[in-house]
Amino acid sequence: METPFPPFEPNGPPDDSGRGPRLREIPLRLIIPNLITILAICAGLTGIRLAFENRYELAVGMVLLAAFLDGIDGRVARLMKATSKFGAQMDSLADIVNFGVAPALVVYVFALDQARSIGWIAALIYSIAAGLRLARFNVMAERENKATWQSEYFVGVPAPAGAMLVLLPVYLGFLGLTTDRTFAYFSSVYTVLIAFLLISRLPVWSGKSEGSRLRRDLVLPVMLGVVLYVALLSSFTWEVMVVTAVIYLLTLPFGARKWKRKYGTLTIEEPGVGEDDIGRHI
């Protein structure tokens, strides 16, 4: 028998409007890329701590590990179909730590501090340049209509490569080069040069275009070459890093030359730049 009166509720009828959205379960695959990004940030910050503790080899190793993890988290997200706006924001914040702040502080503690204020200014310039480089990359990546060359060239040296290059004075120090005040001044000039390459409009070949193909008969030699490189890197780490950085710098003019043959300019110039888009204007 139904009661003619509603049940008594001392606190009034339930109001679900203030509860907000209900929590729902999140697939584990959506969390994995963010965990990799967090591990990259931890590695970069740990590298800074180790540098201040004068444990330089471990510090450089952690910075390079951070750069590696930060470089694969986006690819892992795309492979697992786990891309999200939250992950993109996390990745951007991690980039400035791992590619800008951590390498600059490690280089400063190892060598640039002997140049006093000049060394600190050089480290600041590099960190700011890395931030500007990443901001420009994010603006270009968010464009609805992307230029065809964006899949083949970077505008300026990419931030991960910049982090690897700016640590060259540290690699040389590990090989026995005297890290005196003269070395600190040269390292400061070199750091500013890398900062300039980051924010420059130099066309840097990326190798990501669909047209980049490898002949079938070269696949096995290339794979063996990669294995040899990794083996040498594990046995002669700092010698290989020096050679890698020097070879990368020497290849930059060839990328610019290829761009000039195709487009007729030495730098990447973008027509139709709007005043409301400071990333493009820079």
Automatic annotation (TrEMBL):
InterPro entries: CDP-alcohol_PTase-I (IPR050324), CDP-diaglyc--ser_O-PTrfase (IPR004533), CDP-OH_P_trans (IPR000462), CDP-OH_P_trans_C (IPR012616), CDP-OH_PTrfase_TM_dom (IPR043130), CDP_ALCOHOL_P_TRANSF_CS (IPR048254). One of its GO terms (biological process) is phospholipid biosynthetic process. Its main location: membrane. Signal peptide: none annotated. It catalyses: a CDP-1,2-diacyl-sn-glycerol + L-serine = a 1,2-diacyl-sn-glycero-3-phospho-L-serine + CMP + H(+). Residues 218-253 form the CDP-alcohol phosphatidyltransferase C-terminal domain. Pfam families: CDP-OH_P_tran_2, CDP-OH_P_transf. It is an enzyme of class 2 (transferase). It is a multi-pass membrane protein. GO terms for cellular component: endomembrane system; membrane. Residues 1-13 have a biased composition (Pro residues). It is found in: Endomembrane system. It comes from the Bacteria. Belongs to the CDP-alcohol phosphatidyltransferase class-I family. NCBIfam families: pssA. This is CDP-diacylglycerol--serine O-phosphatidyltransferase. It comes from Rhizobium altiplani.
